[in-house]
Structure formats: structure tokens, C-alpha cells
Write a structure and sequence with these properties.
Helix content is 40%, strand content 13%. With 320 residues, the chain is α/β, with parallel strands linked by helices. The strands form 2 sheets. The protein has an 8-stranded parallel beta barrel, surrounded by 5 helices. The protein has a two-stranded antiparallel sheet with strand order 1-2. Helix 3 links the parallel strand 4 and strand 5. Helix 4 packs across helix 6 and helix 10 crosses helix 11. It is globular and about 60 Å long.
Length: 320
């Protein structure tokens, strides 16, 4: 049997309450646009992944100055678009800025419809209020959904699980339900400021699609020398995730991800505890999860202009 057939994904998961069937792993978009990754290689990674059953494509408006979206747009030509569940993210908090970024994403991705658009980097307690302002970003996404430009709406963040819970509550206060939530889920998270312990049960209860990310924290977790890449992926796959998004900057790393899915079996409680025991000491202070403890991973911290203007009603309260 050819390796491509043997190692193809055959079992899919349901994306929350949407009914969409998605691959257990998703292809991260950030790595695909890196200057160190040749464009032709990135196109090959995307198409090979889809040929092998990976249908969930992650991306963001701000990845690599737009190069990630442009490359995926090229890769999805020639019939590949219809095989992919396409997701991207926007940083805009105002309706005007969110609309601008979304239109740019549509052009780069060479499509008239994006399956899932998520509010990116909800990492501040004020973000939910800006997003759900009458002139905020969610109004732009709801309009785009009504116009058929997007199908589902979600949000992402990597800083603090309490901010995720706050976002869910502000959404509820505004009569809105998210289709998906993306967050760090890994063997270190379980020990420190845990999204798994605080947010995951709430998402399962509300039937919101769970998108796991940073299973290896861009390789930083591996530097702890406590776990292997496949153990990291197996741990995340064992959680009630719809998709575990993983970055691939080479064909070898893609093969590793596909192999992790092929070899995955539901883990027993004792297997989970053994894995967590190996990572506990290294994880206790967040050293190997710098996206929680520093601003290094916060794109909008270095580009606050991406967020757009504060709501007018707030600006009117300020003294002249």
C-alpha cells in the first residue's frame, strides 16, 4: 500500500454544534509564510496535507505580513478550495478595521467565502467590550456572515483562561454564541494557568468547537526535554478537541503530525497522569509557555494600530 494511502486520515471529528466534520489535526498557517520556508514548499505542504485528509486550514490576516494567506490562496487553486475547511483570523476591534482586514483576507485567499473567521488575540480584559460594541468587530463579522462571506465566527487567545471566560460571558450578555474557541492545550498548560481546567469544560458544556493550539509552543516545550513531539500531539488529541492545530515547515514535520494521528489511541487515566508527571516540574512557573507570561507572542502589542480606534462612545467620555 502506498505510504500516502496508509497514512491518510480516515476518522474525522465534529466541530462543536456546527455539524461540520473536520480532521483531528489542522495545518497551522504561520509557518507556511515564514521567509525560511520556500513558497513552493509551502504549497506542497498544503496540498499534500489535503490529499492525506487534513481539511482544516488555519491562518491569520497578520501572519507574515499577509504572506501566509497569499500562499494558502495559491495552494487552494485547482479544486483544492472545495476540499478545505478554511479559517482565518482578524485583529480589528472596530467595525471599520475588522471589515477592512476581512476584505483583505478574502482577496489574499482568493475566495468569496471563508468558512470560519475568528477574533484574534483576545488577550486583554477590554477586548470583549470593544468587540461587542455596537460599532465593534463582531458587528462586522455578523454582517459578513449575513452576506455569505463567512460561515462561522469564533475567537482565539493565549494569555489567560479568565479572559476567555470573560469573552464568553460578554458574548452571552449580547445574545451571541461562538461556533469555536481556539486556545493553548498542551502538557504544560495543565499545570499552569490552565485553559484545559478552566475553559475546556465550559466549551464542552456549550457545545462550542474546541481548537487546540500550541501543543508544542513552536518547539519551546520540547526544549524542556520532558516530552516528545508525538506525546505532545497525542496529549492534545486525547482532550475533547475538534481540531489540534500544528505548524508544519517541512514535509518531515507534516509526516510527523500525520503519524501522530495514525498512531493515536484514547489514553487511559494512568497514561495521562504519567505524561503530566513528566512535565509537572518544568511547567510549574510557565517558563515553557512564554505566550502566557510575556508579550513575545502578542502581535497586537507591537502593532496596536491593527486594533482600530476605540469606540466613539468611550472617546466621548474623555476630557478634552
Amino acid at each position: 500500500m502506498p505510504k500516502s494511502a496508509e497514512n491518510a486520515i480516515s476518522e474525522f471529528r465534529v466541530l462543536g454544534s456546527t455539524g461540520e466534520r473536520v480532521s483531528p489535526i489542522g495545518l497551522g498557517g504561520w509557518h507556511l509564510g515564514l521567509p525560511t520556508v520556500d513558497e513552493q514548499l509551502s504549497l506542497r505542504i498544503v496540498r499534500t496535507a489535503i490529499d492525506r485528509g487534513v481539511n482544516f486550514m488555519d491562518n491569520s490576516w497578520d501572519y507574515n505580513g499577509g504572506a501566509s494567506e497569499i500562499r494558502v490562496g495559491k495552494a487552494l487553486r485547482d479544486g483544492y478550495r472545495d476540499k478545505a475547511f478554511l479559517m482565518t483570523k482578524i485583529d480589528g476591534r472596530s467595525k471599520k478595521e475588522a471589515t477592512r482586514q476581512l476584505e483583505e483576507s478574502l482577496r489574499r485567499l482568493q475566495t468569496d467565502r471563508i468558512d470560519l473567521v475568528q477574533h484574534h488575540e483576545v488577550i486583554r480584559f477590554e477586548d470583549p467590550h470593544r468587540i461587542f460594541d455596537p460599532d465593534g468587530a463582531n458587528a462586522a463579522l455578523v454582517d459578513a456572515r449575513s452576506a455569505g462571506k463567512i460561515r462561522y465566527i469564533g475567537f482565539t487567545g493565549h494569555k489567560d483562561p479568565r479572559i476567555h471566560l470573560h469573552m464568553l460571558e460578554v458574548a452571552k450578555e449580547n445574545g451571541f454564541s461562538f461556533a469555536t474557541v481556539q486556545m493553548p492545550l498542551n502538557v504544560m498548560d495543565a499545570h499552569y494557568r490552565s485553559f484545559e481546567k478552566l475553559v475546556l469544560p465550559e466549551l464542552v458544556k456549550r457545545k462550542i468547537g474546541v481548537l487546540g493550539m500550541k501543543s508544542m509552543a513552536n518547539g519551546i516545550i520540547l526544549k524542556s526535554r520532558t516530552v516528545t513531539p508525538v506525546e505532545c500531539l497525542h496529549y492534545a488529541l486525547n482532550l475533547p478537541t475538534s481540531v489540534v492545530i500544528t505548524g508544519c515547515d517541512s514535509m518531515e514535520i507534516l509526516e510527523q503530525a500525520l503519524d501522530a494521528v495514525r498512531t493515536f489511541r484514547p489514553m487511559s487515566a494512568s497514561e495521562v497522569q504519567a505524561l503530566l508527571a513528566k512535565s509537572k516540574a518544568a511547567a510549574s512557573h510557565g517558563e515553557f509557555e512564554p505566550f502566557k507570561t510575556s508579550s513575545i507572542f502578542d502581535s497586537t502589542a507591537t502593532h496596536p494600530d491593527w486594533l482600530g480606534e476605540e469606540p466613539q462612545r468611550v472617546r466621548q467620555l474623555m476630557p478634552v
